[in-house]
Amino acid sequence: MNNLFKALNDPTRRQILDLLRGGDLNAGEIAERFDMTKPSISHHLDLLRQAGLVEATKQGQFINYALNTTVLDDLLVWLMSFQKTDTPTSAKTPDQTH
User: For the whole model, what pTM was predicted?
Assistant: First the structure.
């Protein structure tokens, strides 16, 4: 899970995830939308892949990237487990103490 939080911690990687919400893109299409080198984008994509947030599929000379929402679903379930639940208890009101 550390890889997941590390991947989500960077604004560029979050922007890449936002782009992929619109559909699969290859590395070149992703790189075109950023003002940084292609090797830098490749590094970000690799960290996202290692975290399981994206899936990479080679098609010919291109690598296509797709969002993997399964990891995010698992993260949300884990985070929701920390949410307090208000369950009724058998607490007595002051006039029921006898």
Answer: 0.79
